[in-house]
Design goal:
Number of strands: 9
Oligomer: single chain
Strand order of the largest sheet: 1-3-4-5-6-7-8-9
Mean pLDDT: 84
CATH topology of one domain: Lipocalin
Distance between the termini: 102 Å
CATH superfamily of one domain: Quinohemoprotein amine dehydrogenase alpha subunit, domain 2
Radius of gyration: 30 Å
Order of helices and strands: HEEEEEEEEE
Structural class: mainly beta
Largest sheet: 8 strands, antiparallel, barrel
CATH class of one domain: Mainly Beta
Number of helices: 1
């Protein structure tokens, strides 16, 4: 009787141990990605945009850039992708720099990558107003806000 009881206890403990250490396979759920609405109208931003700049530059600190303006000329647009060039004055000399950009899926944000350095992100405030924020990282870091209106 003692041997039978011992065997029974060992079997019960073995069953419990197996049940406690068994790994339950994870349940699989199908992942659903958010759907982007393609019903948002894509704004046409081709043309000339110009306005004041404010910023901060590592070498000069805070600046309104002597009340100079920055001009963004969008020369081409295919859907949400666009390209063109920026024009601004630096140390008395006009600087022209190419860029490529994209309008966000919601039709109100945009981002550009500049030809030589830096990038901008922005918001289309209306059909005639865009605000860009320029960012440059590295040894000569700086930021700027460009408040542009369609010319």
């Amino acid at each position: 009787m003692k041997i039978t009881l011992t065997i029974l206890i060992v079997i019960i403990l073995a069953v419990l141990a197996c049940g406690c250490t068994a790994i339950t396979p994870p349940t699989t759920q199908s992942a659903t990605l958010p759907q982007v609405s393609h019903t948002t109208a894509i704004p046409n931003i081709t043309g000339t945009w110009s306005g004041p700049m404010q910023g901060y530059d590592q070498n000069t600190g805070f600046s309104d850039y002597h009340n100079q303006t920055m001009t963004m000329i969008v020369t081409g647009q295919q859907g949400r992708i666009f390209s063109g060039h920026y024009i601004w004055v630096s140390n008395g000399t006009a600087v022209t720099e190419g860029f490529a950009g994209v309008i966000g899926a919601e039709g109100t944000t945009l981002s550009t990558a500049e030809q030589d350095e830096g990038y901008s992100s922005g918001i289309i405030l209306s059909g005639n107003e865009i605000e860009l924020t320029w960012h440059h990282a590295g040894a000569q870091y700086g930021v700027a806000i460009d408040s542009l209106t369609r010319v």
